[in-house]
Amino acid sequence: GLRIGVLALQGDFREHLHAVEAAGAAGIGVRRPAELDGLDGLIIPGGESTTIDKLSRAFGLSDPLRQRIQDGLPVYGSCAGMILLADEITDPAKDLAGNPQQTFGGLDITVRRNAFGRQRESFETDLDFKGLDFSATRDGVAPVHAVFIRGPWVERVGEGVQVLAKVEPSRASHPEALAGTARIVAVRSGKLLATSFHPEVTGEKRVHELFIRMIRGEA
Ligand code: GLN
Fold first, then answer.
1. I need a labelling partner for 206 at 20 to 30 A (CA). Which of 67, 79, 166, 187 fits?
2. pTM
3. Structural domains in the chain?
4. pLDDT tens string 10-45
5. Counting atoms of ligand 1 from 1, which one is nearest the CA of 49?
6. Which ipTM score applies to this complex?
7. For residue 110, what are the β-bridge partners?
């Protein structure tokens, strides 16, 4: 069977481990560089991107992981995980010395952190999500119940990055934050997948199943 690592430094990695197991793969918590060996794919969970960045550097995971991504390791990032996969952040947090937060990168996108608003502006909505394997699809589009908790959105997609889902202003809890524009919340490029929301907390299995099909070369 497939061995899927979940970066287990901070954030909701347990939920992702459960989702991976529910989808029929082996879930492996990753905290050390050696634990990157022999993985078929990796998930970067939701949480706090600045903390995951700092811990991954402290644990010596950052450079090896960046290299694995360059070498083609399939990776799925949710929320903070999307930020950590992005090549660019519009508004990176700075540490006390003024150094901006870093990402692993690999996805040619620019993200805006906490874009939809603050914690109390968290919201849930149904999204049209392209490419999910779902018997009730209409035109290849399946609604996904999405939970946004201080999530980012994608402000720019590079060449070869496919947009899988957007939030319409009318569906957000604070529509004014979106300034009249549908905002990109799910993207794919090659074997990299990222969502602004958290399928791991709702029992939505199809995003993890899509990732598994990507790993197998079936999607
Ligand atoms: N706001 C968080 C960050 O910037 C992400 C929130 C989340 O993962 N739920 O890392």
1. 67
2. 0.95
3. 3-216 (3.40.50.880)
4. 999 999 999 999 999 999 999 999 999 999 999 999
5. 10
6. 0.93
7. 88, 156
